[in-house]
Amino acid sequence: MPSQDAASASALTTDQYEPTMAASHLAQGRTAPATFDLFVRRLPPERRFLVTAGLADALEYLENLRFTADDVDYLASLGTFRTDFLDYLRGFRFTGDVWAMAEGEVAFPGEPLVRVTAPLIEAQIVETALLTFIGHQTAIASKAARVALACGDRTFVDFAARRAHGPEAALTGARAAYLAGASATSNVLAGKRYGIPLSGTMAHAYVMSYADERDAFRAFARDFPEASVLLIDTYDTLQGARHVVEVARELAAEGISILGVRIDSGDLAALSAQVRAILDAGGLHEVRIVASSDLDEHRITDLLQAGAPIDAFGVGTQMGVSADAPALSAVYKPGRVRRQAGAETLARQGLAARAQAGVAN
Q1: Which residues fall within 8 angstroms of residue 227, CB to CB, at 6 or more apart?
Q2: What range does the domain containing 311 cover?
């Protein structure tokens, strides 16, 4: 499901040169169909593949694209555009055809993620919006896919909302992460809008609002007996684990079970092993350990290779902003230009291959 923001996105979500080029095309009678490809020229050094995302929002945008009266009035106030062009915009609709990779497909440099064939003005004027929808969400999905591969049979949850570059980025980022392998999100609006399962625990502030950590654990478990994952590192992680054992024994008489604990700081490998030992010694073999704290695919790989008994991960900042590759070299070019660029890319790849083989000249 696309976001409501995509459906209502302004036609002015564009760069200045798009309407000026469109006005020139109209003045010159250049309205024949044209084909544009949206593709990524080259991968960031930290990537070997991409996972496509953002198509649903892009299509919703195209289907609903309109220049409102206010939009046209604003453009008229600039004193740049002729009356015939402004009149043209009042009835503007996107009438073209779109071919695209399905969301979630693996993609590589030079491959068209989206191909638009439409009258030249229509095909050109949507460039900025399409790059925004596809570029951002593909970057996040590609990072999330790497996290999913690192997790293996463990699950991970999108915790990125509070670190994303604004509420809309958090929303579409949650969708992209779920598409690429996240089991759930902490973003409640994303749960409502996209039907993504929600997941969350508690904050340190909740624990600190009680005089005794154990009272916080008791209250939360009683209020949410079906979803009691307790944050145990507010003061002392190991003592927190012992408090969970104590509270779990008390609540068992009420038919309440603790589902899991979360560690959000410190040496996650060492602490998770020690916490597992404390929980097991207390008979809490079924209580899962969730880890968070600035995780990415590299830290998760290191933790699992170290044998950390972590059952699930909360992944936030590093995924939510695709921290190691925050931007893609996505472009939107006419078919002829794209073919030339592709030929240049292939030539460079050929040279690189020969250099690696020791036969470059």
Answers
A1: 259
A2: 142-320
